[in-house]
């Protein structure tokens, strides 16, 4: 199959990128980051999570974030929702798109949302139904699609089964998460082959953490299968509090640089994206982990504007 001509990037930095940070980031800083990502041309910016503040303190300002976003026309600002309480809070905060999340590993599901995979579906079915009735789009996440920190290898058939159920329930897109970043290109392809048997490939997204440095190679490998939606995080930030040792998501700037090099128009201004990466990384007192950000930052120092 030839590579897709149009690629959608789902920016998860304000949510996945920041959820694991130890020191609480002030709401205005998060809002400024979301604004800068919008300015850079991102059309989907996952902005927060309506999860329990006891479980993920960093997301405790979810309602302030949703109310504070200066919403741009044509940009979606989805938020994670783990249960009915989270759904009600998301609706009260005028959330227009939600993402529900389960896993292909029983143990991870328990550790992450305190229920079995089956129980997660029992939680999500009425939420999806209520959301669709209100015209709210629902994205579905499957975690641990290429390995679990507790159970090790995960069979592609399990991923396929969970993805199919989410699709049948009405999720418009299923994001397949390599939560701990252990996947390699051929394993990623096998997993997409399986998941794509019952779900149209156009409805599949990939969500690679980059722990072992394989994310870009994995993305290219699955693009060759027709996958056209890629999750990524500005500055390569990210990680799941319930997946120890997992590093950040693939950096948005690395993905954008690769796509532009392939002649794909992303609608994203790489320079402005780097501004956003520098902004949040300076706040966190660290250098962006991505090679593209580092290379472009070095160039800026060499040639002052
Ligand atoms: P629980 O403890 O089983 O919930 O947690 P509960 O219903 O028994 O309630 C316990 C307390 O939490 C109660 O408060 C509830 O009111 C409160 P108390 O009476 O003790 O004062 N509570 C809530 N508060 C605010 N918002 C809510 C909410 N629900 C209950 N929505 C729960 C179950 C799902 C809430 C918890 O396990 C949780 O919040 N988990 C979220 C974990 C998380 O956010 N993980 C990271 C995101 S997933 C991820 O990163 C993977 C992904 O990136 C893809 C990939 O990489 O694979 C998406
Ligand atoms: Mg993630």
Task: List strands and helices in order, with pairings.
Layout: E1 8-11, H1 13-19, H2 27-40, E2 44-45, E3 48-49, H3 62-68, E4 79-80, H4 84-92, E5 97-103, H5 106-113, H6 117-133, E6 137-143, H7 156-169, E7 173-178, H8 185-195, E8 204-208, H9 215-223, E9 229-232, H10 252-261, H11 270-283, H12 291-302
Parallel strand pairs: 1-2, 1-9, 3-4, 4-5, 5-6, 6-7, 7-8, 8-9
Helix pairs in contact: 2-11, 7-8, 8-9, 10-11
Bound molecules: 3-hydroxy-3-methylglutaryl-coenzyme A (HMG) and magnesium ion.
3-hydroxy-3-methylglutaryl-coenzyme A (HMG) is lined by residues 16, 19, 49-52, 54-56, 80, 82-83, 85-86, 89, 101, 112-114, 141, 143, 177, 179, 207, 209, 240, 242.
How much of the polypeptide forms β-strand, as a percent range?
5-15%
- Low-confidence regions: none
> Would you report the number of β strands?
9
CATH class: Alpha Beta
* Distinct ligands: 3-hydroxy-3-methylglutaryl-coenzyme A, magnesium ion
Radius of gyration from CA coordinates? 18 Å
| Number of H- or I-type helical stretches | 12
The coarse overall form would be globular
> In the CATH scheme, what's the topology name?
TIM Barrel
Q: Which structural category do the helix and sheet elements fall into? A: alpha/beta
CATH architecture: Alpha-Beta Barrel
What is the terminal-to-terminal distance? Answer: 43 Å
What helical percentage do the residues reach?
40-55%
H/E series = EHHEEHEHEHHEHEHEHEHHH
Let me know the CATH homologous superfamily: Aldolase class I
User: How can the largest sheet be summarized?
Assistant: 9 strands, parallel
